[in-house]
Amino acid sequence: MPLIGLDWGSTRLRAMRLGAGGEVLELRESGAGASTLHGRADEFVAALDALVADWHALPGPVLACGMVGSQHGWRELPYADCPADASTLMRLSLNVDWRGRPVRLLPGLRCTTAAGAPDLMRGEETQVLGALQQAPALAEQACLVLPGTHSKWARVQGGRVTGFTTQMTGELFAVLRQHSVLGRLMPAPTQDARETRDAHEAFNEGVAAARDHGDAGLPHQLFSVRSLGLAGRIAPPDLAEYLSGLLIGHELRAGLAWRAQSGLGAAPLRLIGEPALCARYAQGLALFGAADTPVLSNTAPAGLWRLAQEGGL
Amino acid sequence: MPLIGLDWGSTRLRAMRLGAGGEVLELRESGAGASTLHGRADEFVAALDALVADWHALPGPVLACGMVGSQHGWRELPYADCPADASTLMRLSLNVDWRGRPVRLLPGLRCTTAAGAPDLMRGEETQVLGALQQAPALAEQACLVLPGTHSKWARVQGGRVTGFTTQMTGELFAVLRQHSVLGRLMPAPTQDARETRDAHEAFNEGVAAARDHGDAGLPHQLFSVRSLGLAGRIAPPDLAEYLSGLLIGHELRAGLAWRAQSGLGAAPLRLIGEPALCARYAQGLALFGAADTPVLSNTAPAGLWRLAQEGGL
Hints:
The structure is a homodimer. The first copy, chain A, is α/β, with parallel strands linked by helices. Helices cover 40% and strands 23% of the residues of chain A. Chain A has a 6-stranded mixed β-sheet, sandwiched between helices. In chain A, strands 12-11-10-13-14 form a 5-stranded mixed β-sheet. A 3-stranded mixed β-sheet of chain A has the order 5-8-9, with no helix packed on it. In chain A, α3 (124-134) crosses α10 (300-310), α4 runs antiparallel to α8 and α7 runs antiparallel to α8 (236-261). The longest helix of chain A has 26 residues, at 236-261. Chains A, B: This is 2-dehydro-3-deoxygalactonokinase.
């Protein structure tokens, strides 16, 4: 059976058409993220029509993951509690209506951190399941890292997601660069990543500072982005790389400690996500002694496929 | 001899008229901070005229500290290196011209952190000297905490500032509240601080989370502001208090560790600054076992007075 999959996040809508064997036949994308649609069902329907009206008549189920199921989404779905697998998620899924055609929305995942606070994800659980579909050996046990605005580190044991931890690394980078004093010394961002030797070294220097001196505290180390710039120790075009290294370094430091505390210190480590961002994380991980961490890119289609199979859609 | 003192920071200009014994006779303040004046001498002169043109004819020297001496200030002064005292600062001070009248600008202070990065301050060194003027017993050894946009923790030994560490706590709070996803769950800020029992508890909960679970990493703990809000564990009006507690808690955790590593674990600890903000830090310090930390407010006039005496102005 073919499938229409929707990876509907806060800022982007990614629609995919999968063939009867789960192969991706077509991908389309728009900026109609859930956070732009005011929690109104008619706006979600319109966003879907704007991107894939011509798919409405195609056969097969429609399955959607991500912020589309959040408080201000098309319809709010509860979170499934960890440990959870594909069947847990499908049990909590619910239909909404796309002009007479059902769209099955998936819930997010929730766990409790060591500090007793809840932690949450919506959408990444589908990418995790996709990774297990692509690389079944990981299902036994693995630590999966999904870098992003809100990075997720997920613990997989016995085919289930048993816990995870969120880090606001990407959002911190964006707000500090755009809105803090740290951005003032940096030139305007360009589309192209800097690939010079100096940029590379500035990134590594940031990672190493977090690795070796992170106890000094991130709020302290962030100020060094400014002081190293003012002192001429790092050139302005490379300061954003240093900041990126510092923030990713703090994430890796905390994430690897979480992994060890979770008893997964020896389990396979994998990066999942956009290749350029994952390459940056792999470079950072090498400085923490984890060389050549494999990268899985865009596992959402495989995850949606796996979930559709599980639910007998 | 009377003195005209200027505490000229990034965003505010504070002018004070001191009597022959150092007593404050008059204080005036404007929003003509150094960062608003484009590094142009004529704009600095105009800003001074707008606030205190009638002081131009008064007797006595004019002495200025803060960002007025920075790269984009009235004139750029170098930093004095730690260890430094009043005479070190006066030796590096320089005059600029206020319509035929000299204004003596003070340099900032620089030190090197344990990680080998430079750390910088401009203006706080004068507040530190003012504290030593007000409470001479602190000169032998003390750890002075100046909360703010960029908080400073200064180490005083033998009458000199021997080192310090900066934390971007206030700026992190502002940018996260105004520009990140964390602010979206919070109601618009009001002028009045929340003084309810729940607000107080949310602040304490944030401090305790940083104290007990800070190893999980600030980028992780910041996300809990969102997850605790979404889960209904902290009410929206109190989320900003929790965020404040979390950030101040991380500052205190790192600052107290820095103090201990500096060999000042038993030295007097003092807060210097705006009373309401210092009260918040004192509340946080109590949760770290440092109850009733004394507060010194607005020590800049005493510092400028001390420096003018030292320079024989």
